[in-house]
Amino acid sequence: MRRFLVLIAAGLLGVLSIPTTGSATGAIDTGDAAMLQRVMPAVVDLSLWKLRPSPKAGGEPRRVRTHGSGFIVDPAGIIVTNKHVTDNAEDITVIFRTGERAGGKLIAVAPMVDLALVKVEFDRPLPALRWGDSTRLRIGDHVFAIGNPLGLGTSVSSGIVSALNRDLQDTPFDHYLQIDAAINHGNSGGPLVDVHGEVVGVDTALYNPVEEGGFIGIGFAIPSDSARFVVNRLLDKRNRSGWLGARLQDLTYELSVALGLKNTDGAIVAAVDEQGPAKVAGIHPSDILLAINDSRFSDARAFMREIIEMPIGQPVKLTIWRAAKELVVTSTIAQWPNSALPAVAPNTIMASTADKAQNDGLTLATLTQESRNNYKIDDKVHGALVVSVDKDSEANDLGIVPGDVLTFVQDTPVAEPDDVQAALSKAYEQRLPFVAVLVQGKSGVRWVSFGVDER
After folding, report:
1. Which residue in the list 47, 67, 69, 84 is annotated as catalytic?
2. Residue 107: left (phi > 0), alpha (psi -120 to 50), or beta?
């Protein structure tokens, strides 16, 4: 069964066709009710006009009204919401609990995190919510989701924190809260508050195996420690995010075995920016980052959050695993650049079949200028081109597709199909159960692990 992660901004059209299975869990006592009365005036409904493409080929775009939620964090009229709520909006109207309305101006968006800021001009200070500490949340803690489900107006649901540090593979920094407080389309951007009325999350998405389905008990919120950091960065243009220029990936059991590490505590380097500090420090793909300034983290996203919050220009000590040994290198935190690491654009045109080799369900070929043009592969990318993938193969299960490029096997760069075959043969001779392969694909770079069989 396919899984669907549904962003929860709502359109007025078709609202009645969206099932709203699921209900709020947990009873609201009198203390909670008093707290919510204090909180709700700072929660706003957002009504937006957007242009949507016509469902008919060649048809005119149509103007539709959508709904979302937000909350005030500054009495001067600064409102936090989700980026996807404001995407392509031509007009934003902010509706307050009093029924008053004001035009909203989009003043900032976070390109890599689903957050945006809207500003309203008002004739008096507005009620604002306080940020809470999401790092202190525990599974089972009681929370309240406040928002504008299905465009019906401000509503409250209650529940618990179901899980922490959920990776939705949305950004390199994901550590979503999973909640069972009911949220539906239109709740996007609303606050998740604790029993003290402090914001511990921003309601963002729900899970449903039906693409257009509603809430079935699994919702997700951006934790407040991430949201507050991003909002402060957006408001203070002088305060820039830290950057090392290394793309990290979670370390799996198979990858750790392939590279000689006895546990999965660390993050493997998938790519290094040519102009980044990591490159200067000698970091390269297949290195495993174990610690930053002696602080160890459980996954790649935690490492990335640590780096992004470091001051620009600060020296940093990196403990890495390379060639089955632990070593320490030093680097310097730089300012996050405007562009991300390059990715290969998707293309369905088949490449030249010259110099092919068959490897574990993959047909590989030498990269030529023709194949680079066909697949829109950057000239800086070097490796063995994937031109076909057997349907019943491990490579297919790993999501490898034609147009991908194999760039590293283990800690060795590869340039030709023969290099890949030689590396796989070496892994077999060393009796390795798994071999680590770096794939440059349409969405960027990632490490995968192939099982090494006796063939």
Report:
1. 84
2. alpha
Catalytic residue among 69, 188, 241, 449: 188
Distance CA 162, CA 157 (A): 15
Q: What is the per-residue pLDDT for 357?
A: 41
pLDDT confidence of residue 131: 96
Q: Which CATH class is domain 4-234?
A: mainly beta
- pLDDT score at 218: 87
For the cut 50, the answer to whether the pLDDT of residue 440 exceeds it is yes
pTM of the model: 0.60
How many whole angstroms from its chain centre is CA 159?
24
- pLDDT, one tens digit per residue, over 54-105 is 777 777 777 788 899 999 999 999 999 999 999 989 889 999 999 999 999 9
Residue 116's nearest CA partner among 84, 161, 152 is 84
Q: What would the DSSP string read from start to end of 208-277?
A: ESSTT---SS-EEEEEHHHHHHHHHHHH-TTSPPEE-SEEEEEPPHHHHHHTT-SS--SEEEEEE-TTSH
Element (H, E) at 395: helix 394-397
For the chain, give every domain's residue range. 4-234, 242-335, 357-451
Interatomic CA distance for residues 46 and 188, integer angstroms: 10
* Chain-centre distance for alpha carbon 399: 18
Evaluate whether the domain defined by 242-335 bears CATH number 3.40.1190.20.
Answer: no
Residue 19 is predicted with a pLDDT of 39
Is 84 annotated in the active site? yes
Catalytic residue among 45, 69, 114, 250: 114
The domain 357-451 having CATH identifier 2.30.42.10: the answer here is: yes
pLDDT of 346 > 50? The answer is no
DSSP 8-class letter at 295: B
